[in-house]
Amino acid sequence: MNESIGLGRITGIRVGLNWSLLPIFLLLVWSLAESLLPSAAPGFAGWGYWTLALLATAAFYGSLLAHELGHSLVARRHGVRVTSIVLWLLGGVAQLEGDTPDPRAELEVAIAGPAVSFGLAAIGAGVAWLLAQLGIGALMVAAVGWLAGINALLGLFNLLPAFPLDGGRILRAALWRRWRDRPRATAVAGKVGRVVGFGLIAVGAAEFLAAGGALNGIWLALIGWFVIVAAQQQAFSGGPTASLVLTVADAMSREPIVVPASATVADVIERYVLPMRFAAFPVISADGRLLGLATVRRMADLPRESWATTPISAAAAPRSQIVECSPQDCLADVTARLGCFPDRLAIVVDGGRVLGILTVSDVARAVSRAESLRQTVASRARTATRDPRTEPAWGSAPQP
Prior knowledge:
With 400 residues, this protein is of the alpha/beta class. 56% of the residues lie in helices and 15% in strands.
């Protein structure tokens, strides 16, 4: 999920908003101001409801950020690099580079988010009770009480065993610990996640039809769709080749075309894009260091009349916005990182030198080859294994 507006950094982690957040933010404000708060605390002026609705909704998204920070800080403690947190239409996403090193770390990272949400819910409930005891306005009590309830609901919902929700990751940690096989655990957790996702869509559709177009039904269906898509992607990264340990070197496209930072956009297009149909080019410095990644899409965004004078670095994403890996890295781990970046490819670097590019298509081909090899080996093993009851015993004659 890409950020549209940057909010700065918290403990070194970049925080941003995606544009899809705006409509649901406005919808929540409207729902609170026009329905929920007036029902809970009638008799106040309209501007009071709208003011508290705006503050409560902003605080809710602050709670989502705290939930993701919980995951991120625990992940970082276990050596997993956290690149950013993005708040979007369906909540928040912490973008991690790599995976947790063991089942215990997976469990701790997964449970950290709901723990933060439940903690905020308890604090909110306590504050609401205290305000009520002090006789402070019912409207404030209603707003704080709503915050407490929505955080409790957020924590409970995320505990559903729907990978990649927190509950699904807890399930994967348990299966990983039992089987000592992370790809197998990921595949099973992904299947469970897809089942739960379809269930959420069914419940959402039923609620929508029963209530004549209820917003909650649409919301559940959207979340169900997201769970299905995300579970499929995660299961793919640890999918059918669980018995085969694939590395980036098994899949990457070697010796990519690299372009110097001094080249112009026109140079790259005339020399490589038009005759060779390449679409991505690592950009390097004079001493061979990787500076960024230029793509045809970014070149096309520049005014055509400026191509002859614009350096290729102007059409390149900086290193902070691309995936870098080494040939020895686990292919499943790097694949999981690709979806967190807009170009959906990785630059393979070793000793400071660019060795290759890894795309989603490269991964698919490697997985297909590995699965074909696995099936061939299994078939030959079945052919070579004969039922001992059909073989003669040592020193005896075959039976007629």
